[in-house]
Design goal:
14 helices; six-stranded parallel sheet; single chain
Length: about 260
């Protein structure tokens, strides 16, 4: 199945999608039983790809890279004005709603102790009839230990259609790429903090801040020790690198 058209943002191919297009892509992949993974990409993800060619190739090999942050939406609209933000937590809720009729079966992989089980309970209450096949809360461990045949076998035994991955970026993207040939579920989707948001463990930014591109400021204020580098270093670097790309001073290839 062909991938959505993309816009080149510093060598990362960001898909020209909105929420409906993204859901349609996921639905077709499940229907066709085609193994793929979906990266939900923000400025942070793009800048992590500047530090690692391997990670950049992982993003560019994904079946879809959704514009999670408003700066990426604004850039994508230069190619397609119908692009809207496809934010990981919103994508999760929208797919859960659609999957009740579609019959998709879900697995939740990620979160700290008790988080994925709490998330499953909350989502079943919010979406009666939602089919959550199972949950798994991985230990804090190296990637090779997490992306193991044993983990794949345990998830495969529950026969999900979609595996939701919430172990933070860029670890979750590397996990999905390693697990793609090992698991039977057609689609993996990395949604990071969505597990914490929808389980009630972490508060989300107000909608007006999300719409105006200021969610990063809300998260920085609420979690400064963990996120200061992500926003105070990455954001200015992103603006500078993007200016060089737009002026044609530096070229970025879409490596796969």
């Amino acid at each position: 199945m062909s991938r959505p058209e993309r816009v080149n943002v510093l060598g990362v191919g960001v898909s020209l999608v909105n929420m409906d297009r993204a859901l349609d892509q996921i639905g077709r992949r499940v229907h066709n039983r085609e193994r793929t993974y979906v990266c939900v990409c923000s400025v942070h993800g793009v800048m992590e790809c500047q530090r690692s060619g391997e990670l950049r190739r992982i993003f560019n090999s994904a079946g879809m890279v959704t514009p999670d942050g408003m700066p990426l939406v604004w850039l994508a609209r230069g190619r397609d004005p119908q692009v809207t933000r496809v934010y990981g937590p919103d994508l999760m809720l929208a797919e859960f709603q659609r999957s009740i009729a579609a019959g998709h079966r879900h697995f939740l992989y990620g979160g700290g102790p008790g988080v994925s089980a709490r998330l499953a309970t909350a989502m079943r209450e919010r979406f009666p009839g939602l089919d959550v096949a199972g949950t798994m809360e991985p230990p804090f461990a190296p990637l090779d230990q997490l992306a193991s045949p044993e983990t794949a076998a345990a998830i495969n035994a529950t026969h999900p259609d979609i595996i939701w991955v919430g172990i933070s970026s860029p670890k979750q993207e590397r996990w999905m790429a390693k697990m793609r040939p090992l698991r039977e579920a057609p689609v993996l989707i990395g949604v990071g903090a969505a597990f914490d948001f929808h389980s009630g463990m972490v508060r989300q930014a107000p909608h007006w801040m999300q719409r105006s591109g200021l969610e990063w400021l809300f998260r920085l204020v609420t979690e400064p020790r963990r996120l200061w580098r992500r926003y105070l270093v990455n954001n200015p670097w992103f603006v500078w690198a993007l200016a060089l790309q737009r002026l044609g001073i530096r070229k970025y290839e879409l490596e796969t």
